[in-house]
Amino acid sequence: MIVSITNKQRRQAVISCIIAMTLAILIKFNVILPAMLDNSIHRWFANIQTGYGDVVMAIATFLGNPVVDVVYILILAGILIIAKLHIPAIWTIATIISGDVFLALIRIIVGRTRPVGHLLADSSSSFPSTHVFGLFIVIFIIAILVTPNINSTYTQVLINWISITIGLMTMLSRIYFNAHFFSDTVAAVLFAYSWVILSASLYPKLAIFLQNHIALLKHDEI
C-alpha cells in the first residue's frame, strides 16, 4: 500500500485524540487549569507585538489559511494524478474534506468564545483552530505519503523542517493576532494527527472499494 502506517502511529493517534478530547471537555465546562494557562499566554503575546512581528505573523497566517490548505492538497493531488496515482489523490482530498466536517462539529459542540481583541473577521468558535488543523492535515499527509517515498535523506529532512516550521509559525500567528488561545492550536494539531492516522488506517478499504467499483481505477496502483 502506498499509504501505510505503523501500530505505533495508531497508538500515538489514540493518545492524541484522548488528550484533545479532554481539552475540549475542560474548555466546554470552563475548568480553571487550561483557562489560566491560555489567559497567561494571551497576555504575554499582547505585550510583544511589533510592526515587524505583524508582518511576519500575517504571512504565517496566510500560509495556514483554510483556503490555502485546500490549494496545497489540490496541488498534491494533481501531482499524484500526473504520476498515475489516482486513488492516493482521491484519499488526500477525502481526508481534508472529511476532516473539516469533523472539526466543524467539534467547534459547534464546544462553542468557545474568541479571545479579547480578536479581528472582526474571526467571529466563529475558537476551539480548535481551523487554520492550524487544516495546515497540519497537509503536513501529516506529506509525512505519511510523500517523504517516505523520497530516497534522499537530506531532502526528507528539508521537507520536514520546512513544513514543521511553517506549522509552528502559523500556530504562533493565531495566538499573536488574538484569533485563538494556546489550547486551541494544540488541540488542532492533536486532532489533525488523529484524523490523518484514522484516514490512513481506512485507506486500504477505500482503495479496494474504488478498484472494485470504478472501472477506470481497476488497475491503479494502491
UniProtKB/TrEMBL annotation:
Residues 89-200 form the Phosphatidic acid phosphatase type 2/haloperoxidase domain. This is Phosphatase PAP2 family protein. The keyword Transmembrane helix applies. It comes from the Bacteria. Pfam families: PAP2. Keywords: Membrane, Transmembrane, Transmembrane helix. The chain crosses the membrane at residues 12-35, 55-82, 89-110, 130-150, 157-179, 185-203.
